[in-house]
Amino acid sequence: MRPADPVPPARIVLPPGVVRVAAVRGDRSGSEHFGESVPEEMPVALVINHLPYAVMLATPADVEDFALGFLLTEGLLGDARELHALEAARSEQGITLHLRVAGPAFAALKERRRNLAGRTGCGLCGLEDLAQVERALPRVAGAPPISAGSLRRAAEELQQRQPFHAATGGVHAAAWSDADGRILCVREDIGRHNALDKLVGALVHRQTDFAEGFALITSRASFEMVQKSATVGIRLLAAISAPTGMAIRAAERSGVTLAAFVRGDRYTLYSYPQRVLPEGGGDPSDGPQAAD
After folding, report:
1. Helix or strand or coil: residue 290?
2. pLDDT score, position 179
3. Nearest to 227, CA basis, from 199, 198, 193, 201
4. CA-to-CA distance for 180 and 7, rounded, in angstroms?
5. Which end of the chain has less neighbouring CB within 10 Å, N or C?
6. If you classify domain 146-277 with CATH, what class do you get?
7. Stretches in the chain below the pLDDT threshold 70
8. Is 185 labeled as catalytic in the residue annotation?
9. Residue 140: which H helix or E strand, with range?
């Protein structure tokens, strides 16, 4: 075995939430010691008006965006203005986010208290019964159509806008694109739900209009991702990977345009296909849910 220094050279700057570890890799020709960059995960506790509410595992970066996005996409807050204060306290055990929300919002929140110890990026951990899974979703307003070229341009640009993934190869990304396919904001996390929550929080902090673009995720399009998108008014959710049947049904009910397998020049539309105009011609209304 060939020894190597696992400590990264001074010129290597790791993004927050990425750690360097010693490892051994091998193949038929032998093995060697090397230094490897891996994504970090850490317990993140949400304490709301002094009441412990949830513990999630997340990449310890952009945690303020995560807190706001989580409260909004879970329907715990109806408006960002209901969050009055947010303070992050870091310790060896993890990160505690102390949140202060408006009185009426806190009263409703206590009714839905989950007290969950969530696995990384868990979307439904801690719910007490099946009736809590599919909460009522708002109907997303119809959106002006975009070109399929915008999906392609956004997917291509996102490949170059993932520093955590470039360093580790092990995290998800959620991005916001304008209608022309220009990426305006990216957030990454080891959990796909966390990445989307962080993106939503960042966009709300920036006072972004959700009617003027679309979200792109590097994970599969699961039910929870559609549910979170519809809750905050995202009208088009595009995924690099596959959708689920439950996600498609949720998109149809809530008015979300769901695109998946967005790779290269290809894409598949599963709801409201008339909102994505093909580059090479064809009728996008020939498909499911053609009418708004």
Report:
1. coil
2. 96
3. 193
4. 43
5. N
6. alpha beta
7. 1-13, 112-135, 280-292
8. no
9. none
